[in-house]
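Subject: design request, 151 residues
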């Protein structure tokens, strides 16, 4: 009869988590706690990862930015994703603000891919385009500027 594998320690589990994907400190703690590890072991594992430099917020932020670029998402999506992943509100806001310049170009790409030439859009299609772009995290001001509209 096969013996059951022993449960890995919190440190081993934490190393396994970051081997698959770049995670924030908050994500590692949350995932270990969800797996039922005691708080002291979770704290110890997170401290070990931080000590060895395995928890890199900048790498997580860069990965989120690359995803926004690849999927044509706006600063609002970047802000929400960073907050959900445990990045501080101030840092997430700063990163989203820094992304505003590139946002218009990505919004244009998203608009072109979904609706074609913006000049050919009738009023209902323009309304759908506005809703679509705002839902993808672009600011209303960016969307209006892209469509050549004013409030």
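Subject: RE: design request

Done. Sequence follows.
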């Amino acid at each position: 009869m096969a013996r059951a594998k022993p449960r890995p320690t919190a440190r081993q589990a934490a190393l396994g988590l970051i081997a698959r994907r770049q995670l924030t400190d908050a994500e590692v703690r949350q995932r270990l706690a969800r797996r039922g590890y005691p708080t002291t072991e979770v704290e110890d594992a997170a401290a070990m990862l931080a000590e060895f430099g395995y928890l890199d917020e900048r790498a997580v932020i860069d990965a989120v930015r690359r995803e926004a670029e690849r999927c044509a998402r706006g600063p609002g999506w970047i802000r929400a994703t960073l907050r959900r992943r445990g990045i501080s509100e101030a840092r997430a806001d700063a990163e989203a603000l820094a992304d505003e310049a590139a946002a218009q170009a990505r919004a244009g790409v998203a608009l072109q891919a979904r609706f074609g030439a913006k000049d050919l859009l009738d009023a209902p299609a323009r309304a759908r385009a506005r809703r679509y772009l705002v839902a993808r995290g672009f600011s209303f001001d960016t969307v209006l500027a892209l469509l050549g509209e004013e409030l």
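The radius of gyration is 21 Å.
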